[in-house]
Amino acid sequence: MTQTPAPGERQNGGRWMDADAYLFDIDGTLLVARGLVHYRALNRALHEVYGVDATIDGVAYHGKTDLGILRAALERVGVRGPVFEAKLGQALDLICRDVSRNAEGMRPEICRGVPEVLARLQAAGKLLGIASGNLEVVGWHKVRAANLDAFFEFGFFSDHHESRSDIFARGVEEVKSRLGEGASVCFVGDTPEDIKAARQVNAQIIAVSTGIFRAEELRSLHPDVCVTSCADLLEEGSTSQLPSSQAANAP
Predict the structure, then answer these.
(1) What is the pTM of this model?
(2) The domain over range 21-33+108-241 is classified in CATH as 3.40.50.1000
């Protein structure tokens, strides 16, 4: 019988603080958005830019980028291809303006253990960034509303990338440009798409079930670590780290 890993323990027997850089998803990972500011902005773009009587209701948007959410909602009413692409820039601009105008209405609920995990990683000298399917303006407004922005040095978003794996790839490139080619990267996310994207860019992944997906669902995709929340990582208490890049790559 397969033994379930202890909190904070890798499925392959390792620990969670061994990477050089950590890139966090936002929704369902760092925080749960309240106030419907982002939701209303997406719907407004559908109405005012594309002229359709539609909403994002019913779209399986967890794990999707903002571009992917718009595409899925519009395909249901027959808007696709060149028509979608022609108005996309205008739609994204409207979403960013609308969210910025109403950002005070954001009431994010920070997921359990997140500030403490970020503080521990920062104290250990880890490079911290954002890798999110949100548009950049939207994502940073959420992070700032939760008072978490001081932890992060950079972020990559969906403004120019509909694929989550493309966003993650940009994050890996940024880490390696800052820390060297031998630097290891670990993503933290709450959806199967986060796990798949991390694997596509040959990165590690910590899966947290603070979104809509249960730990059992996430664990079935074999993330390096799977916990119910970031608080579980703190309970494990590991401070083990990878050796330096030079030592790790020595023959």
Answers:
(1) 0.88
(2) yes
